[in-house]
């Protein structure tokens, strides 16, 4: 039995454009085995309370066997600071930039990262660096990336003036409003348009340092990606195939599109490698899940959702949180209030 839940906060503002990741999972491969619980990111600070309440109400526990911080952005890490203070956590997997750099001036959200580490250590939580090859639960969970060298390169790149300048551009309030209006105006199409997603997407090096995880449960593999970009995904795919064989012969059951479906984090080549080529998916029944705010002006990008549909993802297997929660499961009882995914539409590409 396995359940993987992509959560949205109970008090989520339907007008909010801020996406976040808050993922929890539990599994039992033997009927008499104690359930194992994993938390991967917990959204913004207040979302951490929703994670705690969900574990109590749905999993009937406050025990977390493994907590994973994919990277220290506030929409992934801050909820962990809230949650860990209310949960009984055995181990925390988290990157620790102070191990590699004495001067972290300008490293955003460092206070919350430090608070998370300090509280974990004060409570005797085991703190571990999550690098490629690390495994837990007799190999059921394995870290696909990053390698330690790749992480250190991503960390140093965050302090490169050229990189800082490249990612310092932010849309003006007017541009944000226009972007939102353009999303609302996107037309639903009856057929897929010409593909416009390329292979040249670039994301911030902090995103590229995200922990990428594969869960192998009940004979099914599930890949969770944080905000990883194309170089990180390529390295993770290399390790996956070195460990399990090709994606074609050992396909995924579920794939999380990184960074809330951003067009900057996915490319057509890596999607074809992981999911399959146009019309010939490695696993015809695979699922693709995305965490994205209902009112987001850019997440998920139609370029990305159309791209996975082209690669054989069934529209009723393409789930986007959109202010709600999603549960991907095998050999588990369907919960009251949960139903099939609403087929995701084909949209005009922006």
What features would you highlight for this structure?
350 residues, 29% helix, alpha/beta
SSE topology sketch:
Blueprint (H helix, E strand, L loop, with lengths): L1 E5 L15 E6 L8 E7 L4 H12 L4 E2 L1 E3 L5 H11 L3 E2 L1 E3 L16 H13 L3 E3 L6 E2 L4 E5 L2 H10 L3 H6 L6 H13 L2 E2 L15 H4 L3 E6 L2 E5 L5 H15 L9 E3 L11 H8 E2 L2 E2 L5 E4 L11 H9 L7 E3 L5 E5 L15 E2 L3
Describe this entry's structure for a reader.
Strand 7, helix 3 and strand 8 (about 125-130) form a beta-alpha-beta unit. The strands form five sheets. This protein has a seven-stranded mixed beta sheet. It has a seven-stranded mixed beta sheet with strand order 9-10-12-13-14-17-18. A two-stranded parallel sheet has the order 4-6. The model is unreliable at about 170-185 (pLDDT under 50). Helix 1 crosses helix 2 (about 75-85) and helix 2 (about 75-85) packs parallel to helix 3 (about 110-120). With about 350 residues, it is an alpha/beta fold. The N and C termini lie far apart (about 40 Å). The protein contains ten helices and 20 strands. The chain has a single domain, classed as 4-Layer Sandwich (Metallo-beta-lactamase, Chain A). The chain is globular, with a radius of gyration of 19 Å.
CATH evolutionary superfamily: Ribonuclease Z/Hydroxyacylglutathione hydrolase-like
Shape: globular
Low-confidence stretches: 170-185
- Roughly what fraction of the amino acids lie in strands? 15-25%
Number of strands: 20
Largest sheet at a glance?
7 strands, mixed
Could you tell me how far the N terminus lies from the C terminus, measured between alpha carbons in angstroms?
40 Å
Widest sheet: strand ordering: 8-7-5-3-2-1-19
Fraction in helix: 25-40%
CATH architecture: 4-Layer Sandwich
Work out the radius of gyration: 19 Å
